[in-house]
Design a protein that fits this description.
- The structure is a single chain.
- The protein is 27% helix and 23% strand.
- With 374 residues, the chain is of the alpha/beta class.
- Helix 2 packs across helix 4.
- 44% of the residues are buried.
- Bound molecules: pyridoxal-5'-phosphate.
- The site of pyridoxal-5'-phosphate has 10 residues, from helix 10 and strand 9.
Length: 374
């Protein structure tokens, strides 16, 4: 049995489009090198196939959020490729991180103290990125704590600082004046660390009309999401296709789905497809949004169930409704940006919610990079 016959729906992943998006961002920010952010299993697309593809494109820096994600990805990376952990380390996780050879992003003074102590107990320098808060108030040392650090350089004993970073709060809107304020705040803090490479820009930051420091950290744009509100120059990377399980015709005035929240206004043909909120299809799309059958838009009617949803296919030619007929949920006619807008969310949430039950079919995969593997 093919996995596409046993799964509810098929997630098509175009690794060649991913590679093209990587090249497009590299071109955009040249000569700054581009790191790939592959947290949340590569935004739902698969961290390992994403990393393999981008290593072949010359990518040498990766970012995940958690030590557990680093542990899962590290064996797939060749020697010399840097793997950073954005959220840093919980107390007690330092030795595991050192043994793995991942690079924590140190976000606070207590994290710096523990990493320094770990380096000293192991008797060897340990690499780390240092995050400073340039205005987002989420992670990183505020200016006062940077001053504390500068006043006592011994706090960094044993730590080999390989990157100074911060994160933009409003980069998806190039017109937002806060971008320039954060950039200036970051530059001012970075002046205290003159020989450390600097990284500020995510996908949105890559499209700001200014230089991009020493490393860009691209996520969403690699995966085909819009880096900037309202325009999307990236190539779509995923398509999601389901197949109908069953169709039925009901009279006008019939209730559909849990709570009978949709009442048919005419004799209605309903198609049920095996994708629900447990697959990451947002429950907010009950009675909102649509799918496509061939070129035809078919509205979602009724609530989204855990494992299925219902479509109004009354106007669709019979030939397109045979059992197993393909239904496009994400694809050329319906982008992730459109699905996100219908659901009142952002493409990031649609991508990272893509469920483990989908059959993932990769296209454009490179052969494993044996010659580079450690
Ligand atoms: C997630 C994340 C990124 C990537 O952001 P995109 O908007 O997806 O490009 C970069 N840096 C940090 C610190 C992040 O948390």
């Amino acid at each position: 049995m093919q996995q596409e016959d046993t799964a509810g729906a098929i997630l098509h992943i175009d690794l060649e489009a991913l590679a093209q998006n990587y090249r497009a961002i590299c071109f955009q920010v040249a000569p700054t090198p581009v790191a790939a952010v592959v947290k949340a299993d590569g935004y739902g697309i698969g961290a390992i196939p994403v990393a393999r593809t981008l290593i072949a494109e010359g990518c040498r820096h990766f970012f995940v959020a958690h030590l557990s994600e680093a542990a899962a990805l590290k064996p797939a990376l060749p020697q010399g490729v840097a793997l950073h952990i954005l959220n840093g380390l919980h107390p007690g996780a330092e030795n595991a991180c050192a043994a793995l050879g991942a690079i924590p992003v140190l976000n606070a003074l207590d994290q710096i103290a523990r990493w320094s102590a770990t380096a000293q107990s192991l008797g060897r320098p340990l690499p780390a990125a240092l995050q400073v808060d340039s205005g987002m108030s989420r992670l990183g040392l505020p200016a006062e704590e940077v001053a504390t650090l500068l006043a006592d350089p011994g706090l960094l004993d044993g730590i080999d600082l390989t990157l100074l970073m911060s994160h933009l709060a409003c980069a998806d809107d190039p017109a937002d004046a806060f971008n320039a304020r954060q950039t200036a705040a970051f530059e001012a803090l970075a002046r205290h660390f003159p020989h450390i490479p600097r990284s500020l820009d995510n996908s949105g930051g890559s499209f700001l009309p200014r230089p991009h420091f020493d490393l860009v950290r691209a996520g969403i744009a690699l995966y085909g999401g819009a880096p900037t509100l309202g325009t999307n120059p990236m190539r779509p990377v995923i398509a999601l296709t389901a197949r109908t399980i069953q169709t039925r015709t009901v009279p006008a005035g019939t209730g559909v789905g849990y709570g009978l929240t949709h009442r048919t206004g005419r004799p209605t043909r309903i198609a049920t497809i095996p994708v629900g909120y447990a697959d990451g299809w947002p429950r907010h799309l009950g009675n909102r949004g649509a799918a496509y059958i061939g070129p035809h838009r078919v509205p979602i009617i009724g609530r989204i169930s855990m494992d299925s949803l219902t479509l109004d296919v009354t106007d669709i030619p019979e030939a397109l409704l045979r059992p197993g007929a393909p239904v496009e949920l994400i694809g050329p006619r319906q982008s992730i940006d459109q699905v996100a807008a219908d659901a009142g969310t952002i493409a990031y949430e649609i991508l990272t919610g893509l469920g483990p039950r989908y059959a993932r079919l990769y296209r454009g995969a490179r052969p494993a990079l044996r010659s580079m593997s450690a």
